[in-house]
Design goal:
Blueprint: H1 7-12, E1 16-17, E2 21-26, E3 29-35, H2 39-49, E4 55-59, H3 65-72, E5 77-82, H4 85-95, E6 101-105, E7 118-123, H5 131-142, E8 143-151, E9 171-175, E10 191-197, E11 207-208, E12 212-214, E13 220-222, H6 223-226, E14 231-235, E15 243-247, E16 252-257, E17 260-263, E18 268-270, E19 275-280, E20 283-288, E21 297-299, E22 305-307, E23 311-314, E24 320-325, E25 331-333, E26 336-338
Parallel strand pairs: 4-5, 4-7, 5-6, 7-8
Antiparallel strand pairs: 1-2, 2-3, 8-10, 9-10, 11-24, 12-13, 14-15, 16-24, 17-18, 17-23, 19-20, 19-21, 21-22, 25-26
Helix pairs in contact: 2-3
Bound molecules: S-adenosylmethionine (SAM).
S-adenosylmethionine binds at residues 33-34, 42, 59-66, 81-84, 87, 107-108, 124-126, 128.
Amino acid sequence: MAYHSHRDPYLAADLTFTNDKITWVHDGETLEVMMSWEKPIMAKMAELTVSEGDKVLECGFGMGILSDEIQKRNPGHHTIVESHPQVIVKARAWAVGKSNVKIIEGDWIDLKDVPGRFNAILMDTYCDGDLHRTFNWFCRNKGHHNCKVSWWNFSGGTTSAFMKLNWEDVEFTEVTGLDAPENSYYNRNNYYVPVKTLPRTPATYGVLLSSNISISNTETMHIRKVYGDTVLLVCSDPSNPNLEIQDVSGKSVMFKCKGVYSINDGLLVMTGGNNMIVKRGGTWVDKKANELVVGDMLYKSDNTEVEITKIEFDSSDTVYDMFKVNIDNNYFVNNILIRKGEDHA
Ligand SMILES: C[S@@+](CC[C@H](N)C(=O)[O-])C[C@H]1O[C@@H](n2cnc3c(N)ncnc32)[C@H](O)[C@@H]1O
């Protein structure tokens, strides 16, 4: 949890709820958390990001204005995460009878370890020290292919890299004619809704992102091109090989790490805990990458084997973009069989 000077007093504060705003008092000053004049902004945010049937993550319930706008668009699932105890009560009351809504109490950042990805992620929190530090990374791990992300644009403009959370290709849509009474956070009569469409992201487990990945016996594609296709060539048992293509949509996680194993000069680059399946002493056995030894045989998608002749550990500060996939099958990276990752350390 990152530090924001107002965060703890805000969470402990007794909020005042009226028809047109939520306020609290800090150091003798009344501060607005949310106001109803923002409704056209919230409506545009939902319009630009949410399609019927989507899995939506909304961070910060506030007055529920954005929540209503999201609901109008018939999402398949609508998860709302809210941290203030009084707002949580409001959110729970609002959610009664809405079967596609799930309220999660706490900080959005804590969802980082919860499985599941979203088609739209809408961020509108308050006193949030994690936003600029981690939201970009969070979305890469929680967004589906082409996930639409939007957030509060405090800047009033379209150029601040800080406001854009260091993303490129943020698209802005202007909302005009706003009627904001004087307040402590935004006093313009126009606003630019930011939307970032996340790049298509893939699948896999502890293996270097830039590896090639097999999609058929003969064809190899660069992993970045495979993102959109969300398929992997899989094989449950190399001693009785039956290769098939599996859709791995929504089962992928990308992450960064240092300290990786390189096999045969980069044929495979993996975390030490990555699951492998190798032939040792004539038998296919399960091993972690850090248990492999020279002489182990790797299984190739053309039904041949390749011997491990070199294992190196890169202990430098180089940061690698890794990916992992959680499926009930073994799969190929660079035409080499990787063991399914559900019991990955
Ligand atoms: C500006 S309001 C949201 C307004 C909302 N979009 C609406 O349409 O009414 C911000 C909300 O985020 C909540 N919040 C602040 N930090 C949070 C966090 N880290 N995780 C989840 N909710 C948070 C606040 O309690 C507050 O309810």
